[in-house]
Specification:
eight-stranded mixed β-barrel, 349 residues, Diaminopimelate Epimerase, Chain A, domain 1, alpha+beta, 2 domains
């Protein structure tokens, strides 16, 4: 099944339809998506990292979960498949896919699916409408970066701290210096390096195309994230999709925080769900990069309106920054998803 989940798009597959794990599975997925090729012209990929994704779903034997969800980031022009991160965007369609494939029974009004996110070992709840026991994709909920409206999908996350690194602050510090640039490395569902846009001589409000065309900037971002990856205990991340780098700045469109994100080097047209949650977590920590941008935020508030190149993403992050180490109580987001196609895909021979 081809689905849009949040601001991404990918293939949703049953684990039983794939050749196990490892090289055989990865080879099949690359042939399905048309990798390696910058255009992915001979496959189902959309020629960007946001549209070269796979969700593998199966019944779960994990306590407290209904289904297992393994996310796979498939390269576009490079032949690689990564399991080193979650994807909160494709997560928005996992519950509906599970119902459509008979893995979970639908409720009469709505369905809640407990999802074990295999990449990190964390759990998420996804809630979506199923009137009469049928998944409803149509609705009046709009999210930035996606035209039109669709049915709301409420995602609630648990146990996201240290998704890839084992710690909320992977370096053990709230602030580090890399090549003379202050950074905060955080992992609350996604390993992210948070940097003031001004550290790169930017306002943080540059349009996507301007960032994408600045090869000198992209090289600097890549050097910084590779060094950050080492400090975060991720090893050599030269060919990895994590950590992400998020530049933060004061908002200018009525939001609370302006962001520009790179995944891992190409600028994102929006911002990923878990990446947004991690960035918002970081700036709420006293002493962190970007904490100065939160002085006007409501005391004790949990909702954060994040600006990105194509609009806003509103998330929920409830943390106790006074605990040692800081404690994340909960996080979540309202998203949308839509079934685009259900049928048979023919991999490149």
């Amino acid at each position: 099944m081809l689905m849009r989940g949040g601001t991404s798009k990918g293939l949703y597959l049953l684990a039983e339809d794939l050749p196990g794990t490892g090289a055989a599975r990865d080879d099949l997925l690359m042939r399905l998506l048309g990798t390696p090729d910058a255009r992915q012209i001979d496959g189902l990929g959309g020629a960007t990292s946001l549209t070269s994704k796979v969700a593998v779903v199966s019944r779960s034997s994990h306590p407290g979960a209904d289904v297992d969800y393994l996310f796979l980031q498939v390269g576009v022009d490079q032949p690689h498949v990564s399991t080193r991160q979650n994807c909160g965007n494709l997560l928005a369609g996992v519950g509906q896919f599970a119902v459509e494939r008979g893995l979970v029974p639908a409720g009469e009004r709505e369905t809640v699916v407990r999802v074990h996110m295999v990449n990190s070992g964390s759990t998420a709840l996804t809630r979506f409408p199923t009137p009469g026991g049928i998944v409803r994709y149509g609705g009046d909920t709009a999210i930035a970066g996606v035209p039109g409206t669709a049915a709301p999908v409420v995602l609630e996350f648990a146990e996201t701290v240290g998704s890839a690194t084992g710690r909320l602050l992977p370096t053990g510090r709230v602030r580090d210096m890399i090549d003379g640039i202050p950074v905060t490395c955080v992992d609350n569902g996604m390993p992210v390096v948070v940097v003031h846009a001004s550290s790169f001589g930017l306002t943080g409000h540059e349009p996507h195309r301007e960032l994408a065309d600045d090869q000198h900037l992209l090289a600097r971002v890549d050097r910084l994230r590779i060094r950050a990856g080492e400090l975060m205990g991720l090893g050599d991340v030269t060919t990895s999709s994590v950590p992400k780098t998020t530049l933060v700045a004061a908002p200018e469109d009525g939001g609370m925080l302006a962001t520009r994100t790179f995944i891992p080097v190409r600028p994102h047209t929006a911002i990923g769900v878990l990446g947004a949650i991690s960035a918002a977590t970081a700036v709420r920590l006293p002493g962190a990069v970007g904490h100065d941008l939160t002085t006007s935020w409501p005391a004790g508030g949990t909702r954060v309106d994040i600006e990105h190149p194509t609009g806003h993403l509103v998330i929920e992050v409830d943390i106790d920054p006074t605990a040692d180490p800081p404690k994340v109580r909960r996080s979540g987001v309202v998203h949308t998803a839509r079934k685009l196609f259900d049928g048979t895909a023919f991999p490149r021979g």
